[in-house]
Structures are given as structure tokens and as C-alpha cells.
Amino acid sequence: MKVFLKIWRQKDAKAEGKLVDYEMDDVIPHMSFLEMMDTLNEKLIVQGEHPVEFDHDCREGICGQCGVMINGRAHGPLKNTTTCQLHMRSFKDGDTIYIEPFRAEAFPVKRDLKVDRSAFDRIIGAGGFVSVNTGQAPEANSIPVTHEMAESAFDSAACIGCGACVATCKNSSAALFTSAKISHLVKLPQGKLEARKRALTMVAQMDRENFGHCSNTEACEVECPQHISVLNIARMNWEFAKAKVLK
Amino acid sequence: MELNAKIPPGPLKDKWSYYKDHAKLVNPANRKKLEVIVVGTGLAGSSAAASLAEMGYKVKSFCFQDSARRAHSVAAQGGVNAAKNYKNDGDSVYRMFYDTIKGGDFRSREANVYRLAECSLALIDQAVAQGVPFGREYGGYLNNRSFGGVQVSRTFYSRGQTGQQLLLGAYQALIRQVAAKTVHLHTRHEMLELVVVEGKARGIIVRNLDTGEIERHSAHAVILATGGFGKIYYLSTLAMGCNASAIWRAHKKGALMASPSWTQIHPTSLPQSGGYQSKLTLMSESLRNDGRIWVPLKKEDPRKPNDIPEQERDYYLERRYPAFGNLAPRDISSRAAKERIDAGFGIGAQKNAVYLDFSKAIREQGKEKIKEKYGNLFSMYQKITDIDAYAEPMMISPAAHFSMGGLWVDYELMTTVPGLFALGEANFADHGANRLGANSLLQACVDGYFVAPYTVSNYLAEEIKTGAIDANRPEFIAAENNAKELLNRLASIKGNKTADYYHKKLGKLLYDHCGLSRNREGLNYAIAEIKKLQEDFYANLAVPGSAQEMNGELEKAGRVADYLEVAQLMCYDALTREESCGAHFREEHQTPEGEALRNDEKFCFVSAWGWNGPDEEPLLVPEPLTFENVNLTVRSYK
Amino acid sequence: MKKELISTLSRKYLMALTGLFLCFFLVIHLLGNFQLFLPPDQARESFNGYSKLLSGNIFIKAISYILYASIIIHSLDALLITLFNRKKAGKYEYDKRGAASKWYSRNMGILGTIILVFLIFHFKDFWYQYKFGALPVDAAGNKDLYEIVIRAYADLWYVLFYVLAMFALGYHLLHGFYSAARTVGLYHPKYVNLVRVFGTWYSYIITFGFAAIPLYIYFTHY
């Protein structure tokens, strides 16, 4: 099948970028979207042009490195799917495909489709952990956790940190990302001790990183590859309020 | 050259305690004067960096990904082993040790393996304390499941994302230290050279992948936790960026490589569907707990899998290995699949796969139970193939997965370069010729959390008086120039073939001749072909742009340049080992039934290899293996 | 990076709490207005008496100040949040993000502005008239607000303006009610569902209840 691509090209963080047109004649529906991009790059390299820089690594939807806006949607047209797991069978012969980087004030573009998501690391650094040193741990079964709570904590912990929630949010809010970690840890007895401090410091860091307000449109949950629930945001709000009041 | 594994004295079960009791310590006040470089932020790297920083050392951590959380440990699905015996099914440290030694086909060191099993207990405790949400029983206690190659349930899991959850635990521990400024984390930095000063590892040269800048970093010890290099086969279950470069460049500076050809080919990956394909997605081995593997009894059976009646199916693993059935170890399962596929019974469009069937499990346990256990795997399968695996069997096929080989290390995980340590998959130590499922997460964690803090301290205790290492020493400048020279060379060829083109060619050569089965003729052929490919690479490689900017193609080219050299060593390694063991199956050495035939008299050793220069044959340095606690038996899973 | 004085979450709390108070007020307002559906004479007596009662009570007076404050804070906070978000948000050349969420959840600002414009007219029509206008007096001696209400809906286009504004309010509530519940931290899935169902019914009843009044008056009196 044939597709027409309009890809954002930008030489570096400071340069002006623009959409550039490319044509692909030999696309196979079973190809993954990124394999289509590989094929394009092969062509560009042989022509001596700089290939399109895009983030990717594991290509099985778990590392969270890949992620672009495809036809105006984070990770493309499918719900709850990473860019690397999107296949060309989701497009039709003759389609025009717009490919842009994830955009937000907090995610500056580095080159072409690559953006800087280090803000996420700093949010985790502000308290997204249990303060336990190696060697301090007690016997594992001395901390019972109900099956349901462990599963629920897992659901929150499954976040891959790709940034689709921010990219799809009209406010570029990082509420889903931040709340997933806050609620993962508050659901477990191990994380409860530091819950109040964590809620305050992580939210403060999130604000410092230039993310917008959450306005509960729930687009983030729809695009999240791990289907992280927006109820985590409610949990964060609750924990934050509790911490503020009881501070 | 003689290799000394530095195994502590005493009975097997006391060796690690003995070591810990006698290892040299560093006074807390002195620790902050000592710097340690950790390359890689996977489970081994993150856990080592975090643990050493918690102790008070100054740590510099490096990864090529844009966040430490993305290292490929994240992709491990199935679980992590620990001899907790929570299931009361007779498990013990010794039994786990024995399973691992036997699973590795008696080609690993007893003392290392015993320590691995021993430390597994503490690892589960540590991970739970960090908030890793392991699967739980309804009563609130930890659950586990069984995995390939063993007869007890000792695999702890977080649904199908155990690697992710363990890595996030280690990542969070690391980031906590970064926030506390005890670790200086450099993401998007790739190691290009090891700097050796007066015989000791003293630093590394790295490239900032965002800007192209070359940086020198010095330290009192260097830890490589850079993972495996299965990506050398191009099509593999590994991430696109996984590479051998860090360990290979250390190898060229004097660190021996051990058993580089021992690559685990994983039995349950998705089959290749076309030439454009960039990776083979793994379906967790845990699926074999409930899935049954079969091919049609009739060649080229055109019927759909659900239309083939029970009596016309060949459940070949259950047939050949009745005791372990679908849970036979990976090397055996992969080879059995290859045997059926090569014999013409393969299924799928390319006739390169076998079925993994859940209908019996769904009938017996209900769809909901199966969904709870493997939901994410089934939906991943559907996304990639467009097939609903609840309704019809999955199609699976073997794929390159794990490097049992790597830098040779002693009991302290130190390489043959003093001060250079290798942790996790980057080293050769615990898995022998075949790794058991759910032991890789374990090894990475144990190396990083529990072994390195003792052994690195033991080394650093001698470095208290050294003082800061000057990164302007001639050795650093020479290493930097060396790195720049290679980058500029690659960027200036300006040929017409991409790095991927060479990588794919190399991968195919290796898969065909140094993959699931090997023979003398094929290996010799492969060595000659790789040399030709290498010449072509340096004549016709195309890398657009320069080394002074973000340049993904240059990164790839550097990795392929190393792969072309590693591949030759792999073939030498396979060629000189005239026996079959674990993942290394030499067609010349097999039983009449087609099982691997070990030669304990001549090959009960680890092949460690030294670098003799680009055009020279490598130097073989054997490390004899002595077994005092187990009998070398024929590994039987029948 | 400058430190924000008030966190994004606190600002959202302010939106939610003022919004929820306004939601509560709407219920009381609607219940009072239902008196307009009584037969004309009875409605006049009852409605005017009710108005008198509200304006005389010190407790109600206090509530009314909270009400005015809520409206002002809710609007100003919304303005601040919107301006802030606009600065932080990514902009795309080709944008189909809307496919992942409901249109009214993304356009609370526009809906809110319509409601604010409506409120200006609404206050002018009734609140201003009642407080400062020259009103006729009914049989019981109370100010005849009922008469003002009937006169207000004489024009069809004005009735339609009211009805339209009520639909804007309806969509605003449809998102606003459970969004507020989420912002104040209602996270248990069971109660979240309950609130969502409740909020939907609430929005329908408020919208159709208020919209029915001008229509009823227009069709019964003109």
C-alpha cells in the first residue's frame, strides 16, 4: 500500500521546525508503524539525507521510549496502544499520515520527533519511592497485602512513563503520571508511611516542571498504553488534600 | 595466563558467608572520597548504583536511554525465582542451586550458583519492601508459579510484567539517590572506551548522544552492567538499542570474554512475518504453564488449528519429555521446535512456527482465570497478530534471547582488568550453557543489590589513599582520541549501505551457522563470510551527518562495527568447543536420539578469550570447572 | 522555574468546592421555582411570599454572599487556570486529540462564559429588579416578583435565549459535577459510578427543570 507522510523535522531544540512531505510506496500492512519509519529512513540514508530521529527501544510496548502524535492522536488511532505496537493495517492505501512529536511546554523537542521527558524522572525523584535501603528489608511475607490490593497497586504501577497522557491532554497535565505513582505506593503498607510527604512533594515537583492543570477530560486514560485509570488522579487529589489538611 | 576465580574456602553453603565475613571494609568517612562508575541502568546497574550510593560512595551512572527506567530489564515478563519454599513443595536453596547447575548443563561455577540461590531469599524481601506489587494469594501472602526446567513453584511474579515492576523498584531506589545527589545520572550517554591506568580500570569515555560531545569520566572502579548482546542476531527479543559495545571495548582493553557463543534461543517468541521485521516479540515462558505446544501430525496440514482433531496433533514436548512436558527447559524446547519445523511440520504462512494452545486450560480453569494470569500477553498478541488467542492457539517460534556468555568474572564479579566489574547479563557466571527461566532477573538483582556492595568495597578498600583520578592523564586523552577516530571513520565512509543492512546480513549468518545448532563446516564458513562482510562494511557504510550532533545512525554503526568482531569470536568459541552442552548444540556431538552429548573429560571448562588484535585469532584461556557437590549427570527431562 | 504560590491541585480544589456549592444552590433555586407551575393565583401568592422569606432571613443573606463569592471565585479561578494551561499546553499542526474525550469536557470555559453572560441578564431581570426596581405589590403586600417573571418571558427569542443557556448549563454540569467529585478525591470505583449516575440525572433534572419554566410561562400566558 501507499501512504503520504507529513513528518515534523527540526534540526535541534532551538531551530524552527516544519512538516516535510514523504511518500512511501512499498508499505506492507503487517509492518509495525516503526518498521515503516525504518523503511523510510533506509531510503533517506541511501540518498544521503539525515534520517528522521525518533525514540524507540524495546518495540514491545513496555519501555515507554517510543511515542509520537500520529494523525493528531497520541500513539496513533488505536486506544491503549504504544506507537511500536501500532501496525500499518490500521491505515488505508492512499492515507495521509501526520507525524509530530509529543508536545508540551514541559517536553521540549530535541530533534525531529525526539522530546525531552526528563521532567518525569524528576517527579519520581521528588518522592516516588519507598525510602528503604538495600539490606533493610524484613521477611517478605511479614507484610501481607490482600490479593485485590496487590492487583490494584499493580494497575497503578504499570505506567511505562511514555508521556502520552501529557501529549494528549489539552492542558499538558501530568496528573495521570504523577497520580499513578502516588496511588501505587499509598495502596501498599510499605508506601503508606511516607504517603503524606510524597503527595505534597511530588505534586510540587509536577507544578515546577511546567505541566498544566488536570481538567478531568479523561483523554489520558484513553490513550494510556497501560490503561491507567483516571481514578488514580482522584486518589492523588484525596491524598494531597489529606496531607494539606493534616500537615 | 592462569585464571583465578577466587572462590572462598570452606563448604559450599558457607562460602558466601565466609567471603562476607572476611571481605575488607571501607570506613564511612572514606567512602565519600571514592568514586564508582556504573554503566547501564537495568536491574543490575540501577541496583548496584543505588546500593553503593546508599553506602556513601560517590556514584556516576550512565545509560543510553532517555530515562533510567527504560533499560531492557523492563521487558522481562514471567518472573523471578527464589527458594522461599512458600508452597511447601520441598524447595530449598540447595535444590534451586542444583536445578540451576543442571539447567546450565554443568558448565557454571558451583560457588557462584549457590550464592545466587542463597541471595534469592533476600531479593524477594527487598523488592517487597520497595513496593513491588507481586502476585498475592487471597490471604495476603505471596503467590508463586512454576517455570520451565523445574518441578517446584518458586517463581514470583507481577502479572506478566515482573521485569518492569522489579526495574521500577530499582529505578526508584536509584532516582532517590539521584535526588539526594549521591548519584550523578547521565542519561543518553553511551560508553565508547574503557580507560585503564597502570593496569587498573580508572574511567570511561562516553558520548553524549544528544549533542555528540565526547566526555571523560574518572573513578576508582568501573562497573559494567550493560546487559546482553543477543541483538547481534538482529532478529531477537531484545530492544533495538541493546548492544555489546561497552563489554567489547572493555574486552579490547584486556578483559577476557567467556563463552560468547552461548546464546539462549527462547522457544516462545512470535514468528517472523517478513524481511522488514525489526524484532521478535517474546511471549513469556510462563505461558507454557497452561499452554500446550503442538504441531499437526500431517505435513502441510491446510486445516485451521481448531479443525484439527486431538488425535491428529503431535504434542511433541509431552511425547519426548513426559516428565517435564511443556515445561522442558528453553534450549530443549527450542531445539525440539526447530526439529519439527525443519522436518516440515511448521505452521503459519512461513511454516516457521508451532502452536501454543490454551483451550484445555480455558476449559478447566475458565477464561477469567487465564485472563487474570496472562491478560496483557494475550492482548499484546492480539495487537501484533490480530488474532484472538482465547479462541485459537497462538503461533510461536524460537528467537535469540539471552547471552549466557559475557565478560569473564571471578567470584567477586571482577573481570581480568583489576577494578573493572561486570554485573548481570553482561558477565558470564551463573547460568552455564543454558539459563533457566526467571533466573535472569534474579541474577541481575543479586549481583547489584547483594554481591557488588561487598566485592566492590573489598576492592576499594585498597584505594583509600589513591586520591581523585585525574581525567587529563595521557591514558584518558589517548582513549578519547581512539573513540573519536572510530566515530569519524564511520561517519566519513559515506558509502551506500546502511548499518541495518549489515546488521541483518550478520544476524542471518549467525542464526544459520551459530544459532540453535552448529557444525564445523558452517562455523568456518561463517567466519570467512563475516570477515568479508566486515571489509564491505568499512568500504560501503552510509552514515549521514557527522559525529558532532545527535546521530542515531552513527550510534547504530558503532554497535554493528563491534558486532562484526564479536560474531567472529562467537564462531571461534563454538568451533573450538567439540561437545554439545545446553544452548551450544554441535551437530557432530549428539546421541542417536538427537539429544546433546556433553564431553566432560575434555570440555569441563569455561572458554575465556583474550583479544589479540583485529586480524589475529583470539587467545583461548580455559578456566577448569570443578564439581565437588554435584555429580555430572546426563541432563534428562524425560 | 519560579515557585507557584498556590499549587495546581489547590486551584482545582477551589474550582470544585465553589462549583459544588453552586450545584447545591441550583437545587434550592429550582425547588423554589417549581412554585411557578402552580395555578396562576396560587403561584403568585406562594412565589412572592417565598421571595420575601428569602430576602428577609439573615441566614439566607449569608448564604447569598457565599453565592456571589462562589460565582466570582469560580469564574476568576477558571480564567486563571485557562490562561495558565494555555501557556503550558502543546500545540499541534494537525490535532485530533478531541477523539479521546467528550467535547463538553474540553470546552468548560466556553460553556461557563455562556452561563456568565446569561447570569448578567438573569441578575438584571430579577435580582436587580427585586432589589432596586419599582415593583408592583400583590394582595398579601409582598413585592410582586411573579409579575416580573411573567413579563420577562413575553418574547419568544428571549425564552429561547434562556432555554439555550440552560443547555449550556446542562453540559457544564454534566462534566462539572463528577469532575468536581474527582477533584475533591472521590476515588472508590463503586462510589465514583454512583456519583456519575447521580450527576447525570442531576444535570438532566436541572437543565430540563429550569428550561421548562420560561417555556411553560410563554405557552400558558402568551
Automatic annotation (TrEMBL), chain A:
List, separated by semicolons, the cofactors it needs.
[3Fe-4S] cluster; [2Fe-2S] cluster
The highest taxon in the source lineage is Bacteria
Q: Name one GO molecular function term.
A: electron transfer activity
One family name in Pfam for this protein: Fer2_3
The Gene Ontology biological process terms listed for this entry are: aerobic respiration; respiratory electron transport chain
State the InterPro entries in the record. 2Fe-2S_ferredoxin-like_sf (IPR036010), 2Fe2S_fd_BS (IPR006058), 4Fe4S_Fe-S-bd (IPR017896), Beta-grasp_dom_sf (IPR012675), Helical_ferredxn (IPR009051), SDH/FRD_Iron-Sulfur (IPR050573), Succ_DH/fum_Rdtase_N (IPR025192)
Ranges for the 4Fe-4S ferredoxin-type domain? 150-179
The family line of this record is:
Belongs to the succinate dehydrogenase/fumarate reductase iron-sulfur protein family.
Protein name per the record = Succinate dehydrogenase / fumarate reductase iron-sulfur subunit
Q: Please give the organism.
A: Pedobacter nutrimenti
From TrEMBL, chain B:
Q: Which reaction does it catalyse?
A: a quinone + succinate = fumarate + a quinol
Q: Could you tell me the EC number(s) of this protein? A: 1.3.5.1
> Pfam families recorded for this chain?
FAD_binding_2, Succ_DH_flav_C
Indicate what this protein is called per its UniProt record. succinate dehydrogenase
Instruction: Record the organism.
Output: Pedobacter nutrimenti
Q: Which domain of life is it from?
A: Bacteria
> According to the UniProt record, what class of enzyme is this?
oxidoreductase
Membrane topology category: Peripheral membrane protein
Please give the biological process terms from Gene Ontology that the record holds: anaerobic respiration
Q: What is the taxonomic lineage of the source species? A: Bacteria, Pseudomonadati, Bacteroidota, Sphingobacteriia, Sphingobacteriales
Q: Tell me which UniProt keywords the record has, alphabetically.
A: Cell membrane, Electron transport, FAD, Flavoprotein, Membrane, Oxidoreductase, Transport
Cofactor(s) it depends on: FAD
**InterPro entries assigned:** FAD-dep_OxRdtase_2_FAD-bd, FAD/NAD-bd_sf, Fum_R/Succ_DH_flav-like_C_sf, Fum_Rdtase/Succ_DH_flav-like_C, SdhA/FrdA/AprA, Succ_DH/Fum_Rdt_flav_su, Succ_DH/fumarate_Rdtase_cat_sf
Subcellular location per UniProt equals: Cell membrane
One GO molecular function term? succinate dehydrogenase (quinone) activity
What SUPFAM superfamilies does its record include?
Answer: FAD/NAD(P)-binding domain (SSF51905), Succinate dehydrogenase/fumarate reductase flavoprotein C-terminal domain (SSF46977), Succinate dehydrogenase/fumarate reductase flavoprotein, catalytic domain (SSF56425)
Which family is this protein grouped under? Answer: Belongs to the FAD-dependent oxidoreductase 2 family. FRD/SDH subfamily.
Ranges of residues in domain Fumarate reductase/succinate dehydrogenase flavoprotein-like C-terminal: 503-637
Where is the FAD-dependent oxidoreductase 2 FAD-binding domain positioned along the sequence?
Answer: 36-441
Cross-referenced Gene3D superfamilies, in alphabetical order?
FAD/NAD(P)-binding domain, Fumarate reductase/succinate dehydrogenase flavoprotein-like, C-terminal domain, Succinate dehydrogenase/fumarate reductase flavoprotein, catalytic domain
Residues at the catalytic site: R330 (proton acceptor)
Please provide one cellular component term from the Gene Ontology annotations of this protein.
Answer: plasma membrane
Automatic annotation (TrEMBL), chain C:
The source's domain of life comes to Bacteria
Q: Which residues cross the membrane?
A: 12-38, 58-84, 104-123, 156-174, 194-219
Entry keyword annotation includes Transport: no
Tell me which GO cellular component terms the UniProt record holds.
membrane
- Keywords, in A-Z order: Membrane, Transmembrane, Transmembrane helix
Matching entries from InterPro entries are given as: Cytochrome_b-558 (IPR011138), SQR/QFR_C/D (IPR034804)
**The protein, known as:** Succinate dehydrogenase / fumarate reductase cytochrome b subunit
Q: Which organism is it from?
A: Pedobacter nutrimenti
